[in-house]
Amino acid sequence: MPASSSLRRAFAVLAALPLLTLAACGYGSQADDTASAQKVAAGAEKIDGLDSVKIGYFANLTHGTALVGVNKGFFQKALGATQAKYQSFNAGPSEIEALNSGSIDIGWIGPSPAINGYTRAEGKNLRIIGGSASGGVKLVVNPDRITSLKDVKGKRIATPQLGNTQDVAFLNWVAEQGWKVDAESGKGDVSVVRTDNKVTPDAYRSGSIDGAWVPEPTASKLVAEGAKVLLDEATLWPDGKFVITNIIVRQDFLEEHPEAVEAVLKASVETNKWINADPEAAKAAANAQLKADSGKELPAEVLDPAWTSIRFTDDPLAATLDTEARHAVEAGLLEDPLLKGIYDLTLLNKVLAAEGESTVDDAGLGAE
Residue 310 in contact with residue 134, Cβ under 8 Å? Predict the structure, then answer.
C-alpha cells in the first residue's frame, strides 16, 4: 500500500474513533478557565517578554505534577513577572483543540491524545517535551465473581472508551491470554464493556459489570465499593514503568519562546522533585487543587491508594508510548502511525543536566 494511502486510512481511523483518547485524563470534553491567584515576586522580570504563558491540565491525579505545581506556585515562580494562566480540561480532544487554537501554549496530557493530535496534524501542531507520570492503571474485579486471572474469561469487564489507552491495554492483555475478542464490538471470550469512568462505579454497584481495567482514581473508587485489585498494569511493563501523562507544547510557541518553555520545564522538574521528597504533603496539595478546580476533593480511602500507585517522573518513557501505539495497531484499531519527530527533549535535558540529573531518551522518535 502506498504511504499516502496508509496515512489517509490512519487519519480516517483516528477521525472516526475517539481513538487513544486518554480517559485517565478526565471526564467529558469541556474546559474550565482557572485564574492564577499567586502573586509575582517583587523585582521579577518577564520571561522572553511575554505577558503570560497559558498552561493546560486535567483535574485528575495522573496530572499530579500540574496540580501540585499550580497549588504550590512552582510555575509562577519560574516564570517571574510573566503570568501563569491555567485552564483545566475534562478530556484529551478539548485540550488538543485548545492547543491548536492557541488557547493554551503548554499542556499536561496522556500519551494517546498526543499520538492522535500529532498524527492527525501530520506532525505539525505539537511536540512532547517532557514526562510527568507513570502507572496508576489496574484491573479491579468483583471478588465474588472473579478470584483469579483465568476467571476473567467469560466475564464483563469495563474499559473507559473504545480505543482509549486502557481499552487497548486490556485488549492486548486478553490476546496474550490466548482469548479472542472483536475489538470493535467488544464481544468474544471476554465481553469488553466501554463505560465512562464517571459511571463505572455505578455500573459495578448495580452488578452490570464484573470488573474494570481503569486508571486512578476510578480503580480505587471501585475498591471502596468492595472490588479487589486483581492486576496492576505496572507489573506488565519493564521496571514497572509506562507513560500515563506527558507534557506537550505548541510547535510555534516552542520555536518562538524557548526560554518560557524551559522555565515551565524547570518548574515541572522542581515540582516532581518536591513530590517525591514529600509525597504526603504533595498528595495534600494535589487534593487541595482538585477541590479548587472541580469543587470536590477525594476521600482518604480513594486518595491514598490511588496516589501511591502513580509514579512521578521527568522521563517521558518514550519507548512505552511507541509500544502503546503498536498495541493499538495489533488490536486492529490503528494503522501504523508515523511518530518520528513527536518528541523534542532538548530543553528538558538541558534542565536535567543543570540540576545534575540524568538526561532522558526519545527512543528514536525525536525531531531531526
Answer: yes
